[in-house]
Write a sequence for this structure.
């Protein structure tokens, strides 16, 4: 799937609603392979976000995972965020769960993986790692979405699984998180440096999800609450 504006034309976006089949789902993995183009105009920006929501109960993502080089809607970096608003979009709670440096190049394919189980979230992309543990993460999710910047973007694959805790996670956790610098969740009070918010246009995709709940012929371990994918160290049995 290609998303972007042809040269010389206005930016445009698409919106595809997606409801997670089990509206009380708390434990999920999203895996998205994507790339975005180089900047070609001053007004363009590059960003990528995976979010899990619980609407209409909560306005704002339960978990929002950003790989943001230069969009001024939020700080640049590799981020995990929880935000809750009233139906009128007034912020009730905004937590920056993790903030890490970001290393990413345009026109290179990356696979972003967001794992959420219980009160833990793990977000990885290449050598980038973000992690958080917070009570706010335990809320149910019924909607998934992708947010992209305003250069051209391409999405090769989107996959969603129901997740289960990996019994080996406590052993593997130190090696997985060793690339991450220490950070503790804190109130998020970011203010955009541009009052005009010129860079706040997005391409947003809300995707339909069919969480695999039955055994897969290609992966006999993909049953019920465990997909068996070994690249998911936090929440899946390897």
């Amino acid at each position: 799937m290609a998303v972007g504006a042809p040269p010389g034309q206005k930016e445009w976006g698409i919106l595809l609603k997606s409801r997670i089949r089990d509206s009380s789902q708390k434990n999920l993995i999203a895996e998205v392979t994507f790339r975005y183009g180089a900047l070609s105009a001053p007004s363009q920006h590059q960003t990528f976000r995976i979010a899990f929501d619980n609407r209409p109960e909560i306005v704002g993502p339960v978990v929002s995972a950003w790989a943001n080089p230069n969009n001024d809607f939020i700080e640049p970096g590799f981020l995990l965020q929880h935000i809750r608003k009233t139906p009128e979009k007034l912020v009730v709670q905004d937590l920056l769960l993790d903030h890490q440096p970001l290393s990413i190049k345009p026109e290179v394919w990356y696979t972003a993986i967001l794992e959420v189980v219980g009160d833990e979230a793990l977000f990885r992309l290449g050598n980038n790692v973000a992690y958080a543990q917070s009570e706010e993460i335990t809320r149910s999710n019924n909607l998934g979405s992708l947010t992209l910047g305003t250069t051209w973007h391409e999405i090769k694959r989107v996959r969603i699984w129901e997740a289960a805790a990996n019994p080996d996670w406590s052993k593997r956790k130190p090696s997985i998180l060793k690339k991450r610098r220490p950070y503790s969740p804190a109130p998020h009070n970011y203010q955009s440096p541009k009052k005009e918010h010129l860079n706040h246009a997005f391409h947003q995709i809300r995707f339909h999800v069919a969480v695999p709940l039955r055994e897969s012929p290609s992966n006999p371990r993909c049953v019920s609450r465990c997909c068996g994918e070994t690249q998911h160290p936090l929440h899946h049995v390897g």
The helical segments are 169-177. The chain has one domain: 2-206. DSSP finds one helix and 13 strands in the chain. The two ends are 30 Å apart (CA to CA).
